[in-house]
Amino acid sequence: TTQPATDLGYLLRKNPANVHETKLPFGKAVVFYPEATDQRCEASLIIDVDPVALVRGRKVVKGQASLFDHYVTDRPYAASSFLSVALVRSLRDAMAGKSPDRPELAESVIPLEFVVAPLPARSDELITRLFAPLGFELEIQRDLLDPGFPDWGESPYVTLRLKTEAKLSDALTQLYVLIPALDGSKHYWVGDDEVDKLVAKGGEWLAGHPERDLIAKRYLRRQRYADDALAELDAQFGMASTEAAEEDTEVTEATMRLNDLRYEAVTDAVVKSGARTVCDMGCGEGKLLRRLLQEKSLSKITGVEVSPLELEKAERRLKIDRMSPTQASRIELLRGSVVYDDPRLKGHDALTLVEVIEHIDEERLTAVERVVFAEPQAPTVIVTTPNADYNALYEKLTAGAFRHSDHRFEWTREQFKTWTDGVAERNGYTVTIRGIGEEHSELGCSTQMAIFTREPSDD
User: Fold this and answer.
1) N or C: the chain end with fewer CB closer than 10 Å?
2) Spatial separation of the C-alpha atoms in residues 157 and 232, rounded to whole Å
């Protein structure tokens, strides 16, 4: 809608007066303009997939899908990973930010709107997790599979509407990466060249995306290739690799989501406590710190970590050197330990320990109690730790094994309650325990969280 809106033709390098066709290995892509006025200009990319071309030359391999299965497919109708191929083939210059006739416009941030339909995506939540951190406003429309048969449930396809203000090249490359990450059955063989494509197209925006591990894994389909891509992103953009999922025996989308749920739950508890200042003890690479920075009600956020390397990673992850002076004044990183007295911890409204205590020998928890509860006397202390009862649901976890090789213990719900009740009684707190993650009727939630509260002291 940036006027004259027909300048979109210069950005796409496609004349609005013409129809533009590009041959593809599986059919063709057509670009045309349903509307082209000075006030509003719309370009449509339509993919015509030839299902015969998809299977031409294929041989039936024992144990794999038959040729019939390849013919009966949603590929000719759905906006799958084929769309990324069509984008790069038909809009190559636009994705590269090349516009010889309007170079200044190609570098400008402009209002843009994209509609992708029908997009195969069974989870609205996953769509939001991938697109929202990039600044997109989302509208997801999901209809019934068949209105005449409501019992069949909802369709696995959505109409996705995205609004943003960005450079067109940036938005197109984000679509190029994220649409295949949503596609449950990528259509072509994934190899080393796909790692290079992901790094080239993802670049810095992917390196800093909170779901970059998940995106790499879904885009590349194989953990080995995903690890290669993440290592290359680290090397090129100086971003630390994200912390491993606690359940390193089952690194899945579900466990990655559990990390997010922890950060959301802890942040929500901090905000609801009325805290203005918060200290995350054992902050690691700074994931929770980054989430806390989004809360305007928090005036001071401190991260404490014993490892200098982890503190360096946190500084890079948070991009403190690129923050405005006002934003940078809200965050402070300190080297320290949860088992040694530290006067710098005093004065905070809230202290958090997220998946920390299980990495400490049980006999040293008395020191943790002194440092965290007895000395600072913060009005709110929040502790999360794995629920050992829930371990029975992890198929790859043998009986008695811990979720992470560095865990010194993992407590059942009863053991955690015994410890939290004792800490609260000895230090003048009241405590509430909640679960984080999907709840099992008998085994509870994967993570257990204790919220300790007490009236602030007069001094």
Assistant:
1) C
2) 33
- What residues does 160 pair with on adjacent strands? 116, 140
Q: What token pair was written down for 374? A: 């007895």
* Cα 457 to Cα 8: distance, rounded to the nearest angstrom: 62
- CA 165, chain centre distance (Å): 20
Q: Which helix (H) or strand (E) holds 394?
A: none
Partners of 49 in the beta sheet? 27
Report the alpha-carbon distance of residue 381 to residue 278 in Å, rounded: 10
Largest CA distance in the chain: 80
Give Cβ neighbours of residue 380 (< 8 Å, ≥ 6 apart).
Answer: 269, 270, 273, 275, 349, 350, 351, 451, 452, 453
**CA 151 to CA 378: how far, in whole Å?**
52
Tell me which DSSP letter residue 211 carries.
T
Residue of 137, 110, 140 lying closest to 124 (CA atoms): 140
Q: Exposure pattern of 77-108 as b/e (b: 16+ CB <10 Å)?
A: ebbbbbbbbbbbebbebbbebebeeeeebbee
**Residue 240 CA neighbour count, 13 Å, CB half:** 18
Which tens digits make up the pLDDT trace of 111-144? 999 999 999 888 888 899 999 988 899 999 998 8
pLDDT tens-digit map of 169-227? 999 999 999 998 887 665 555 666 777 888 888 888 888 888 888 888 888 876 667 77
pTM over 0.85: no
